[in-house]
Design goal:
alpha/beta; 7-stranded mixed β-sheet
């Protein structure tokens, strides 16, 4: 039997593993993709909002010449952290079943090769991310091949007419990158003005591009349908606008998957979106089952960041230690 299993090898899962090591456990991390897959899925040239100190785990310094680190630097840092602490990680292995047992928990997994495995663990920490589950629009044309909820880099869209749905940092960053490769960019946003959370060093550049007419911005508008060469957007007063279009980036955010929590008996609040857990221990209503990172959030996955989620492991370790149960 494993002392503890952590499901998810994102920054918060890695941090939890380090903290459990420090109290004498030897946790196993099971990850269905590569380590820090959510960060890997970020746009290629993304620059973080946070300083490197706020992304650190296990008191391991995040060395970078930049005031705000970039995605590729974070990938290197978290790989190095996993190696430094010699974390036990099984990648490309998905937990397909998690059940409570008398001794703790029974887990069933499936490797991408098709191999199935079974584990037993005294404690389980669910630290899964959210990038696999975009917030769907539920409109006609969302399933067209030209529509995607993910943006990696601008090159494939050079010279094209691109409509971006959304107004958060990912939408603003994508719009500026697309502009640099000669794309014709229209941003459709339901808000009346730009979000106050837009990165302060990016906001004035974006506003300038709007003022110069280089980026078309439709505020208080929603996309109602997507066609092969047109996107239709409705304003607050119901007036529809036809936008000539080649590609659509629906950057409307993501949500954590609650299926595993529900199947294990974790109670949910906030319209069945947020798991019930004790914030002083991170333990759910299922004894021995903990949550860490974005899985603890409600409808808005952005209420939990690496900066705060990385601290969940310390709380979990302190609670297990306080139990004085073979630790």
């Amino acid at each position: 039997m494993e002392q503890a299993i952590i499901i998810g090898a994102g920054p918060c899962g890695l941090s939890a593993a380090i903290e459990l090591q420090r109290i004498g456990l030897s946790p196993l991390i099971i990850e269905k993709n590569c380590i820090v897959h959510s960060i890997y899925s970020y746009p290629t040239h993304l620059q973080f909002f946070s300083t490197p100190e706020l992304l650190e785990i296990g008191e391991l310094p995040f060395a970078t010449p930049n005031e705000k680190p970039y995605r590729h630097e974070a990938l290197v840092y978290y790989r190095r952290a996993a190696e430094h602490y010699n974390l036990r990680i099984r990648t490309y292995e998905e937990v397909v079943s998690l059940r409570k047992s008398e001794e703790g928990f029974d887990l069933e997994t499936k490797h991408r090769s098709g191999k199935e495995s079974r584990y037993k663990a005294r404690y389980v920490v669910i630290a899964t991310g959210y990038f696999d589950h975009p917030n769907m629009l539920g409109i006609p044309g969302e399933d067209l091949s030209k529509t995607t909820h993910y943006f990696r880099e601008a090159h494939p869209y050079a010279g094209s007419k691109v409509t971006i749905i959304g107004g958060n940092n990912s939408a603003v960053d994508a719009a500026l990158e697309l502009l640099r490769v000669g794309a014709e960019v229209t941003v459709v946003y339901r808000g009346a003005e730009l979000s106050p959370s837009i990165k302060p060093w990016v906001r004035p550049i974006f506003e300038s591009m709007i003022q110069k007419g280089l980026i078309r911005m439709l505020f208080e508008s929603t996309v109602t349908r997507i066609e092969e060469d047109t996107v239709w957007a409705a304003s607050a007063d119901g007036q529809e606008t036809a936008i000539a279009n080649d590609f659509v980036l629906a950057l409307t955010g993501f949500r954590p998957d609650r299926k595993m929590l529900i199947e294990t008996g974790v109670e949910l609040a906030d319209d069945r979106e947020k798991p019930l857990f004790n914030p002083d221990t991170m333990e759910t209503n299922v004894p021995g089952l903990y949550v860490a990172g974005v899985i603890t959030s409600g409808r808005n996955a952005n209420e939990i960041f690496i900066e705060s989620g990385r601290m969940h492991g310390k709380t979990i370790a302190a609670h297990i230690m306080a139990r004085n149960e073979s630790v």
